[in-house]
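Hey, I'm writing a tutorial for new members on how sequence and structure tokens pair up, and I'd like a real worked example in the thread rather than a made-up one. If someone can provide the structure for the chain below, I'll link this post from the tutorial.
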Amino acid sequence: MLSTLRQIVEEIGHIPVLEEALQRVSELLKEAMRVDCCTIYLADTENQCFVLVATEGLAKEAIGVTRIGFSEGIIGWIGQREEPINIADAQSHPRFKHYPDVKEESYHAFLGTPIIHQRKVLGVISVQQKSRRRFAEEEESLLITLAAQMALEVANAEARGAVKLSGSDGIQLWQKALYGRPGSSGLAVGVGFQPNKKARLSDYIAARSQKVNQEISQYRRAVKRTKADIRKLTNQVAENVPKDVANIFQTYDFLLDAASLGKEVEEKIRAGWNAATSLKQVVGNYARQFSQMQDSYMQERAVDVVDLGDRVFGHLVNDKRRVAEIPAKAILVAEEITATMLAEIPAKKLKGIIAMRGSVNSHAAILARAMGIPAVLGVTELHVSHLAGKELLLDGYSGEITVAPEMQKRISFEALIKEEKELNKLVSAELEQEAVTLDGQHIGLFLNVGLSQELEEKFSADADGVGLYRTEIPFMSHDRFPGEEEQRVLYRSLLQKYHDRAVTMRTLDVGGDKPLPYFPFQEENPFLGWRGIRMTLDHPEIFLVQVRAMIKASAGLHNLQIMLPMITSVEEVKEAKRLIRQAFYEVREEANREGEEVHKPRVGVMLEVPSVLWQLEELASLVDFFSVGSNDLTQYLLAVDRNNPRVSELYQSYHPAVLRALNHIAQVSKRLDVPVTVCGELAAEPAGVMLLVAMGYNKLSINGYSMARVKWVIRRQSQEKMQAVLHKALLMSEASEIRDFLNMELEYLGLGGLVRAGK
């Protein structure tokens, strides 16, 4: 029966037209369950009714005609109760309502269950028989199982149907919004553009060859041509992004080097495989290794490896497919966006990006943010090929996409784009001003750095220092643990740049969603596993080398602060401080011999695990400062993986528990006289800034692009007003209620234009 269920569900995905797919399901299910009738209704929320869309057993002429209100009949009852209904004689049931068009007079036994996707009733599927009987428990379980498996496919099929209806024949019957994960903020109007598919290495059938020298020569020529392509693409994007962001393409060069992929490919050729097969085997192996890592950043490297393999393969087989014409306002749509795909489109034409897969850590997303292009990733409701050639409205703040919009919505959206541009000009004009509230309270604004040095330099002059330096980024870019001197040079450049301001360096924070490719380990639940301080304390040789490098780098300066991540206990802090003391005394002895001076660094902890909320007093006696990691704290408080699309909606920064936890930390820190900073996305949102400043946080650590907006918000409010807003918000019990309230407050304050950016 499991194979039958699988076949039924697959039918929905394989048939492009929704109604045809569901009709096929009704036929298969009737046969599989040996019933007299199977019927499927879909919800029409606009008209508050269920529409008969497929049946095998009722009158076919009723399809598309019969509509049952959400509160009518047994079908409506199922939708209201959101559970299955099993009735021996439906026609004698008090909720039964006769619909002459369907011609169901001869049926008595009835079993129906809702089709639910993400808490929304999409429809109802039912089976009927002429005899009077209750369906068996096994039959009920089968129908429930089928409905649950169908739900996602029905949602996808609905989306396909919506797109088809909204443009194929010029008649727009209804609109449907699609959603994904925001990858790069901004708004765009354009036409979906899907590049022509090129030769794919994964489709190649393995073959052997004894012409070793010939195959190696052929492979090396293909690599040489691919390198030339990459250089050309690098030059194309170099004009529009900072140099170090454009250096993303160095990853491709590194992989193409003879010491990397090349060595292994040529070994396969010498083992008797031809060049294409050898390349396929090596690329496949690397892609699997990357994709199996828990870290989203490293998973995205699998995309780069596959893309590179396809490009080399294209030269191996001399693939010369015609390049599709790029529209003047192109929104690039693809299953996965690669950095090279992005670079192939002229910057003047590229207005946005939509992908079925990908994360904010993908090279494409990094490039998009650097180029100021909005992006939405993880659009799973339909295949992006259905968006090609369609007019699209793309919202990179909320992740919403509107397909073939009505004229009025398009006009409103374009007005928003114009408003956003004007607001950005106003906000940017105050970037060099102090972040001071109307009643004179100065708020320290610090930078989160570590991803793009050149991008971050644009905002360094306007920051009060570095609130978070992610030291794991350089560790990830190596193929081994970087040595002490390598780290010292890197840290020294940052400390010197901010010589008159504090620089907070977080010790190596890997594991969880950030494993190292050269130090792999598998865990069933990495977010609750061996990560952060847990890993480095288990490997003091790694921790000591890093801390020594930090302290050495601070010679002659007095601005180094060391922050410990993923702290859950007092014991961890004590052990980490013991190692820091050991490293400091060693470095100080060396520095004294060389006539240099080093200062003992201030040490702080990240508050990102709920257990520390009840250990603040003990921790305060051990450290110099606190830093709240609001992203992880929210994730752990709510037990939600925000990268999981099935539950990402439950990740709510304005959840009452999150706000009360943050307020508790602020109040206790003030009482204990311990400086506290907030690092995380909440500190960069207009509404979040209001609440955090009102709680008493006078230091926020944010990304550079948010600097001007955060200053704008702070400079237009008073502490008294913000505290009044906070007081009301803390009394509310639902995140949606709090968010709506905060958005209204921003409107009242004349900051309505920033509401969108905070969504």
